[in-house]
Amino acid sequence: MTEKILPKVIVIAGPTASGKSEWSLQLAKKINAEIICADSRQVYKKMDIGTAKIRGEWEWRANWRGLRHSYFVDDIHHHLIDFVDPGKRFTVAEFRDRAIKYIKLAYKNDRIPMVVGGTGLYISALINNFHIPRIPPNTKLRNSLEDKTNEQLMQLLSTLDPVTAATIDAHNTRRIIRALEVCILTGEPFSGQRDQGESMFNFLQVGVQVDRNVLYDRIEMRVDKMIERGLVQEIEGLLKQKYSWELPSMSGIGYKQFKHYFEGTKTLEEATAALKRDTRQYARRQLTWFRKDSNMEWLDTYDDLERRALDFLG
Fold first, then answer.
1. How many CB atoms lie within 10 A of CB 159?
2. Are residues 156 and 215 part of one domain?
3. Please, which of 31, 73, 207, 274 could form a disulfide with 56 given CB 3.0 to 4.6 Å?
4. From 134-138, 157-161, 234-238, the region with the lowest mean pLDDT
C-alpha cells in the first residue's frame, strides 16, 4: 500500500524574546512562505506594544480568490495576528481550525506554510490534530469559581482531573477555571477530551535555542523598550474604551502587571519589575512545554534553520 504523502509545514517555536520572528521572516523570504502566528496574545487588535507584536500593515492584495485584506510584515503574508477585538475570546479550537484553513490556503497560493509562535497549546493542538470540546462559557458557574482562591481551584481540579492539574500553570486562574468548567459541564476530565485525530500534515518542528542568560537580558531590554514605546499609554487607551481587567486579553502578560499601577497601589517601577519577572517565568514555562516534545529539533543559528528547512522541503 502506498504511503500517503502529506503536505509539509514548518513550525518555528520557542520562548518569548528568543528571536523566532526574525528567523521566520528571513526564512519566509528564502522559501516563499506565508506565516501563521501561534501566539495567544498577538491575536488581539489594539494591543501591539504589550504583546511585542511584530510591526506590519493591513493591505488589500489580490490572490486567486480576489481581493483580500491581509496583514503583511516586510511583504510576508501573516495570518492569525491583530484581528480579534480585545473584548472577545479566542479559543484553542478556533486557532486549530483557522490554522488548518490558512495552511491549505498557503499551498493554494503556491507558498510554504510556516507556523511561528510561543503558545505551546496552540501548536500542540495543530500538530496533534486535537479535537477539542466546544463548551460555551457558563457565566453562573464561572462566577461561583471566581470566588475561590487559586489554591482551592487547583485542589478541585486535582480531584476532577489530576492529569490537567499536573500540567496546567497554577497561577493562570483563567485557564484553571476553563478546565474546571469543561470537567463539570461534560462530566469528564478535560485531559481526556482532547482526542488526537489523524495527522493532516508533515511537520518539521524547530525550536530556537538561546542561552538562558542571553534570553533574560533580551527580556529586560524588551520590557524597557515597551515602556519607551508607550505601553502605559496603550493600556490607558484600552481602559478608556472600557476593556475590563477581567478579560482574557487584559489579564495576559504585558497588561495585568499594570493593574495596581492604574489603581494607584504600585509605582511604575514596581509594575515594570513585575512584568520583567513574570515574562522570565513565562519563558521558563514555554521552554518546559516545548522540551517535552521529542520531535522538536533545537537549533542554535538561523543558518542551521535554513539548512534544515531546505533539506526538509527537498
1. 10
2. no
3. 73
4. 134-138
The tally of domains found in the chain comes to: 2
Q: Is 21 annotated as a binding residue?
A: yes
pLDDT digits (tens, 9 = 90+) for 216-264: 999 999 999 999 999 999 999 999 999 999 999 999 999 999 999 999 9
- pLDDT more than 90, % of the chain: 77
16 appears as a binding residue in the annotation: yes
The answer on whether 15 is annotated among ligand-binding residues is: yes
Question: Are 64 and 186 contained in the same domain?
Answer: no
Q: What angle do CA 41, 199, 204 make, to 5 degrees?
A: 65
191 is in an annotated binding site: no
Cell of 66: 480576489
Residue 102 lies in a domain: yes
Query: Known binder of ligand: residue 14?
Result: yes
Q: Are residues 123 and 251 in the same domain?
A: yes
- The answer as to whether 98 is a domain residue is yes
- Determine the Cα–Cα distance for residues 54 and 32; give it in Å rounded to an integer: 19
